């Protein structure tokens, strides 16, 4: 049986709403399992009455925040939650500020330039400006990407608080996709330390041998990481020998976007 959650000691605890607590527990649980969970799996994992879990899931599904696969009986979070998290990080303001930066980054590198953020235990693409090359990397807005292989995920995780970073790393399944994929929490943590030192992150064909990426974090007025921008292109145009130089270009553009989002000048490199 899962351990009972220990409530923090606070005089405000008497104002807690139990059903809202349970709903948030359920949302957090689903966010850790992008592949989805069955009603039984969630009931067991949350140690909640099955009827309560079913009612919450039904409400979330009716409101569009969750989806149910009728064939597998699996529930997943929907992209509607993206609009909520999007608002928390500056939402439309971020998209507007990023538009010109992404275009400039695409022009400077010739590769597809993208903007994304973290969403639960994965990353999600918010916007992109496609490369003008006939052969290019293009992804759908809303596409989810894994944390251990994607350059933008590394760029964001590296600058989270230590507690948040450790919690996310503990939830990663280090699936091996290519010969360069990082397959352990120790190796991944070491790479994130290097990202913090350099200010940019790389995907050295870690998810697919056909493309590579270079990313840098975007910060807000509180100097908190809220997003990442990156370039993605075929591995023959972005070989490992050229990735660091390309990443520095990305970092320069990320700094401009951070300034637009109000990051204090004292924190800019």
Notes on the structure:
- This protein is α+β, with helices and mostly antiparallel strands and 269 residues long.
- It folds into 2 domains: 11-78, Winged helix-like DNA-binding domain superfamily/Winged helix DNA-binding domain (Arc Repressor Mutant, subunit A, Orthogonal Bundle), CATH 1.10.10; 84-267, 2-Layer Sandwich (Beta-Lactamase).
- It has 9 helices and 9 strands.
- A 6-stranded antiparallel beta sheet has the order 6-5-4-9-8-7, with helices on both faces. The protein has a 3-stranded antiparallel beta sheet with strand order 1-3-2.
- The longest helix is centred in the middle third of the chain and has 19 residues, at 91-109.
- The model has no long low-confidence stretch (mean pLDDT 87).
Main beta sheet, described? 6 strands, antiparallel
Low-confidence stretches: none
The strands making up the biggest β-sheet line up spatially as 6-5-4-9-8-7
Structural class per helix/strand content?
Answer: alpha+beta
Strand content: 15-25%
- What is the overall pLDDT average? 87
The total of helices stands at 9
Q: Provide the domain count.
A: 2
Principal-axes geometry comes out as globular
CATH superfamily of the largest domain: GAF domain
Summarize the model shown.
The protein is α+β, with helices and mostly antiparallel strands and 269 residues long. It contains nine helices and nine strands. The chain folds into two domains: 11-78, Orthogonal Bundle (Arc Repressor Mutant, subunit A); 84-267, 2-Layer Sandwich (Beta-Lactamase).
């Amino acid at each position: 049986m899962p351990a009972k959650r220990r409530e923090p000691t606070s005089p405000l605890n008497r104002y807690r709403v139990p059903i809202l607590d349970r709903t948030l527990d359920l949302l957090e649980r689903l966010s850790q399992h992008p592949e989805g969970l069955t009603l039984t799996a969630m009931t067991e994992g949350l140690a909640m009455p099955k009827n309560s879990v079913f009612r919450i899931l039904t409400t979330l599904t009716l409101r569009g925040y969750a989806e149910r696969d009728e064939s597998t009986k699996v529930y997943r979070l929907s992209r509607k939650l993206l609009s909520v998290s999007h608002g928390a990080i500056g939402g439309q303001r971020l998209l507007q500020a990023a538009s010109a930066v992404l275009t400039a980054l695409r022009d400077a590198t010739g590769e597809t330039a993208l903007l994304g953020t973290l969403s639960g235990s994965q990353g999600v693409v918010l916007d992109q400006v496609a490369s003008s090359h006939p052969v290019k990397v293009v992804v759908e807005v809303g596409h989810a990407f894994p944390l251990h292989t994607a350059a933008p995920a590394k760029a964001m995780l590296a600058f989270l608080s230590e507690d948040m970073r450790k919690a996310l790393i503990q939830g990663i399944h280090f699936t091996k996709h290519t010969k360069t994929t990082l397959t352990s929490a120790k190796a991944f943590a070491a790479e994130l330390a290097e990202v913090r030192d350099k200010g940019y992150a790389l995907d050295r064909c870690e998810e697919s041998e056909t493309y590579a990426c270079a990313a840098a974090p975007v910060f807000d007025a509180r100097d908190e990481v809220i997003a990442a921008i990156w370039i993605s292109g075929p591995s023959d145009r972005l070989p490992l020998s050229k990735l660091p130089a390309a990443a520095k270009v990305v970092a320069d553009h990320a700094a401009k976007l951070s300034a637009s989002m109000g990051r204090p000048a004292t924190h800019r490199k």
